[in-house]
Design a protein that fits this description.
2 copies of one chain form a homodimer. Chain A has one domain: Thiol Ester Dehydrase, Chain A (Roll). Chain A is built from 4 helices and 6 strands, in the order H-H-E-E-H-E-E-H-E-E. The first copy, chain A, has a 6-stranded antiparallel beta sheet. Chain A is globular and about 50 Å long. Chains A and B meet through helix 1, helix 2, helix 3 and strand 3 of A and helix 1, helix 2, helix 3 and strand 3 of B.
Chain lengths: ~150, ~150
């Protein structure tokens, strides 16, 4: 795992108590896909499957982390916020789970960087999903993030 | 606080580790509005305000709890699942916070009960929000829940 990815995991676990409670891990930044993972046990619900709040938290953090890591790679100092998201719960998750985040269709890092440079802030849509072992979606999240340059 | 509300709080804290980690409380069921609360400290993020995952978790649990408490009042044994939700993060939350859940406009408990009785399952839209001290919305969540009768 590259240093920036390991550093982000350390930051999240140090600064967000709920990330520690979830036992969040960053698995990999593979091309333009960031993968985070969490074990089922601390994230279980009353039915014995994954708690929806944990699924959304991991999905949102994966999307947020994808943007943060790209900005760090550019040596750009920004705050990154989630603005809104749409969540679909499609199937229960009965095992440890991973969340994958990648740019939404039609988005480009180049356009994002150009807007950020010109205006000091830029928005970006990210597509995140938790999949079942057979590849089907269990939970999807489309989220819009905004990055604001620190002056 | 009525017994069913206290019982639901005990159930959530017993069965969902993340509800314990968030230090979730049920404040009141006031008419058709369920209010849940959480302190800031265990739910803080890297910026020192409330973690988005905690906001969404509390909002979703408040909506879910509203439906569950109504079904328990009817002595109807159902599983209740969240199907999808739309979340808007409007302002950072710098203090302990509460989530209010009520039926979405156009929804009625009577229609929900009738469909559930006829078909054994029924859907319901719930409107949930975390407000700032001045009454402005900090985070809103519209969620759709499905109740499925246990045979």
């Amino acid at each position: 795992m590259s240093d920036p990815t390991a550093q982000l995991e350390r930051d999240l676990l140090a600064e967000i108590p709920m990330a520690r409670a979830m036992q969040l891990q960053i698995r990999a930044l593979d091309g333009d896909c960031l993968v985070m993972a969490a074990p089922l046990a601390p994230n279980i619900n009353d039915k014995g499957c994954a708690f929806g709040g944990s699924l959304v938290s991991l999905l949102t953090l994966a999307g947020w982390g994808l943007v943060v890591l790209k900005l760090r790679a550019w040596n750009t100092t920004c705050d990154v916020y989630v603005q809104d998201s749409a969540v679909r719960y499609l199937a229960p998750v009965w095992d440890d789970f991973t969340a994958q985040a990648r740019l939404a269709e039609g988005e480009s890092w180049d356009a994002f960087a150009a807007t950020l440079a010109a205006r000091g802030r830029a928005r970006l849509n990210v597509d995140c999903r938790v999949k079942l072992a057979d590849g089907a979606d269990a939970c999807t999240l489309q989220a819009r993030f905004v990055a604001i340059a620190k002056s």
